[in-house]
Design goal:
By secondary structure, this protein is α/β, with parallel strands linked by helices. The protein has 2 domains: about 1-60, Signal recognition particle alu RNA binding heterodimer, srp9/1 (2-Layer Sandwich), CATH 3.30.720.120; about 60-125, 2,3-Dihydroxybiphenyl 1,2-Dioxygenase, domain 1. It is about 15% helix and about 35% strand. It contains 2 helices and 8 strands; from the N terminus they run βαββββαβββ. The longest helix has 12 residues, at about 20-30.
């Protein structure tokens, strides 16, 4: 974006039925602190301070379905996280309340479902 300059922040917003709980899940998974909370909103601070993930209250929330199914709520986007050890990253995510998606398409990527139903991927660093 041409109008961006150094020091400007950027972020991603995720809808959830319980923003505090979902922010707590990602905080524990990633080691990112929850930098701000207020009723209906929780904000995760990414390292470096220029980016964030905000989790917002959604009334009538419908979790997305993975893989997509006609007529049901599709995932509009998902998060990818590079990991050094795929199996231990999966174990960590499961211990925090995630679940593995039923459909898996690549051996070096594990599709997980967060506690609110959003898919996210753990991607093995193969370098």
């Amino acid at each position: 974006m041409r109008s961006r300059s150094d020091g400007m922040w950027w972020g991603l917003a995720i809808e959830a039925p319980d923003p505090s709980a979902l922010a707590g899940f990602y905080s524990a998974l990633l080691g990112w602190p929850v930098g701000h909370e207020e009723p209906g909103t929780s904000i995760l601070q990414a390292p470096g301070g220029a980016s964030f993930v905000v989790v917002q209250q959604a009334e009538g929330y419908q979790p997305p379905v993975w893989p997509p199914v006609d007529g049901q709520q599709r995932p509009m986007m998902h998060l990818d996280f590079q990991v050094g050890d795929l199996e231990s990253a999966v174990e960590d995510a499961l211990a925090l309340g995630a679940r593995e998606a039923d459909a898996q398409f690549q051996p070096n990527i594990r599709v997980m479902i967060d506690p609110a139903g959003h898919p996210f991927c753990l991607c093995l660093d193969e370098d």
